[in-house]
Design brief:
Layout lengths: L2 H26 L15 H27 L3 H13 L2
Helix pairs in contact: 1-2
Length: 88
C-alpha cells in the first residue's frame, strides 16, 4: 500500500472518531468549568472546543497509526530490517 493511502487510512477514521469523542465529551463537560493549573482557560469556549478536537484527533490518529504499524506482515518487517543491516 502506498504511503499516501496509508496516511489517509490513518487520518480519516481518526477524524470521524474525534468528532464523536468531542461531541460526547463536551455534552458531559462544560468548557467554562474546566481549569488548567487551577485557572480557567484564557482561550474561551471556542478555543477549548478547538484544542479538545485536535487533542482527540491526535490521540485517535496515534491509535490508528499503531494499528497500521502492527498489521504489517512479517516479511515486510524482516525485509526492511535486512535492508537496514545491509547499509551498515
Amino acid at each position: 500500500m502506498s504511503d499516501g493511502r496509508r496516511f489517509i487510512h490513518i487520518l480519516w477514521p481518526s477524524f470521524l472518531v474525534a468528532i464523536v469523542a468531542e461531541g460526547v465529551f463536551f455534552t458531559l463537560v462544560d468548557p467554562a468549568e474546566l481549569s488548567v493549573f487551577g485557572e480557567p482557560p484564557a482561550i474561551g469556549r471556542m478555543g477549548v472546543y478547538t484544542v479538545g478536537f485536535f487533542g482527540f484527533w491526535l490521540i485517535t490518529a496515534a491509535s490508528s497509526a499503531l494499528t497500521c504499524f502492527f498489521q504489517r506482515p512479517a516479511a515486510e518487517v524482516n525485509r526492511r530490517a535486512g535492508d537496514a543491516a545491509g547499509r551498515r
